[in-house]
Amino acid sequence: MEEHMEPAIKYRLIKKDKHTGARMGELITPHGTFPTPMFMPVGTQATVKSIAPDELDAMGAGVILANTYHLWLQPGEQIVEEAGGLHKFMNWDKGILTDSGGFQVFSLAKHRDIKEEGVTFRDPVSGSKMFLSPEKAMQIENALGPDIMMSFDECPPYFETYDYIKKSVERTSRWAQRGLEAHQNPDWQGLFGIVQGAGFKKLRQQSARDLVSMDFPGYSVGGLSVGESKEEMNRVLEFTTPLLPENKPRYLMGVGTADSLIDGVMRGIDMFDCVLPTRIARNGTCMTSHGRLVIKNAQYAHDFGPLDDECDCYVCRNYSRAYIRHLIHVNETFGIRLTSYHNLYFLIHLMQDLRQAIADDEVLEFREMVFEKYGFNQL
Ligand SMILES: CNc1nc2c(CCNCc3ccccc3)c3nc(N)[nH]c(=O)c3cc2[nH]1
Ligand SMILES: [Zn+2]
């Protein structure tokens, strides 16, 4: 008799906001238990660019992302496996999640050819022919050894025909089943299914029905944040998250601005990732309580206040806008370390404040306050 394996990933619902679909809970993983809703910093090449693991720990990061596609190409998953897996390789002992590479193939690689078997494409760096399939993705993710891994899916263009999206959803469901069967170590339960279906309610229902029947420990809402409007994303979330089991974590992929995080949480999302905070930090754009601030602007040359006067992070307590503007101007790497640290801290603490608002049944008031402070700045 096969003993019942405790799933390695579990979600515990703690409380729902009285007036919205927002909920707070805990994500339980082999590398710790982390409060949700949560923002997950992205570390594409096995590092959250320019930030050390103890700094990530200090700012309250729990789960970080690494990228199957990139690590497969360089240094190769076997080197990470020889190191003892990603946690050892990058010296991070909390949660790690890997995407399956599907999205990267569809967004980075040129001349890709999608077949039932998998996707053939040219690696933009080396120009060599590559092949990725559900089985190959599972083999790579298993070698990387994250706590949570994504199924191999197709993230289709948002504005495609109903027929194209229907065919894509059906293939993604078949790929999800193949992934479940392929991932090698049986006690390994950290696989999430990814719901697709673009903006079509019937296709989102079909995708969710297929994946929920496969009983994944968690689910991602994919196919969003790919150029559709925020209103459109909210409309799709409105009818998609209720299709997912309440006792499983829900992860909205690729979302990371304050307004979208709040609107996603209000529609029942628990986990988010986005490259934005560290990407915009590298050209000196900072997320603050009053909207975005481009530190290179001349207006900050004599400004000796903090990036954000409502932020208590290490950067805002120790450095001025004038100093950070100088560092960015002269391309000093310490400058992007400071802007990256603050942007990540900002989003991680926005989620902390959001969890408190859920505890107090004040999510709507919290949203009002954030949107008002931002005014019409870009969020
Ligand atoms: C930005 N908007 C957006 N991102 C999406 C992603 C990637 C999420 N970020 C993963 C990552 C991991 C490490 C390093 C960098 C990124 C998706 N991934 C999958 N598998 N499927 C999606 O539908 C899908 C949709 C997305 N929309
Ligand atoms: Zn700060």
Characteristics:
379 residues; alpha/beta; three-stranded antiparallel sheet; globular; binds the ligand CNc1nc2c(CCNCc3ccccc3)c3nc(N)[nH]c(=O)c3cc2[nH]1; binds zinc ion
Can you walk me through this structure?
With 379 residues, the protein is of the alpha/beta class. The chain has helices at 53-58, 68-73, 77-82, 86-89, 102-108, 134-144, 162-182, 201-213, 230-240, 258-266, 276-281, 314-318, 321-329, 333-359, 363-374; strands at residues 10-16, 23-29, 32-36, 38-40, 63-67, 95-99, 110-114, 119-122, 129-132, 148-150, 191-195, 218-221, 250-252, 271-273, 285-288, 291-294. Strands 4-14-13-12-11-10-6-5 form an 8-stranded parallel β-sheet. It has a 3-stranded antiparallel β-sheet with strand order 1-2-3. The chain is globular. The protein binds ligand AAQ and zinc ion. Ligand AAQ is lined by residues 42, 44, 65, 67, 99-100, 102-103, 150, 153, 155, 194, 222-226, 253-254, 273, 275.
Low-pLDDT parts are: none
Bin the strand percentage. Answer: 15-25%
- The 3D shape can be described as globular
The biggest beta sheet, please?
Answer: 8 strands, parallel
Query: Averaging pLDDT over every residue, what do you get?
Result: 94
Report the total helices. 15
How far apart lie the N and C ends? 54 Å
> What class do helices, strands and sheet pairing give?
alpha/beta
Q: What is the total tally of β strands?
A: 16
In percent, how helical is the residue content?
Answer: 40-55%
Q: How are the SSEs ordered, and which strands pair?
A:
Layout: E1 10-16, E2 23-29, E3 32-36, E4 38-40, H1 53-58, E5 63-67, H2 68-73, H3 77-82, H4 86-89, E6 95-99, H5 102-108, E7 110-114, E8 119-122, E9 129-132, H6 134-144, E10 148-150, H7 162-182, E11 191-195, H8 201-213, E12 218-221, H9 230-240, E13 250-252, H10 258-266, E14 271-273, H11 276-281, E15 285-288, E16 291-294, H12 314-318, H13 321-329, H14 333-359, H15 363-374
Parallel strand pairs: 4-14, 5-6, 6-10, 10-11, 11-12, 12-13, 13-14
Antiparallel strand pairs: 1-2, 2-3, 7-8, 8-9, 15-16
Helix pairs in contact: 6-7, 7-8, 10-14, 10-15, 13-14
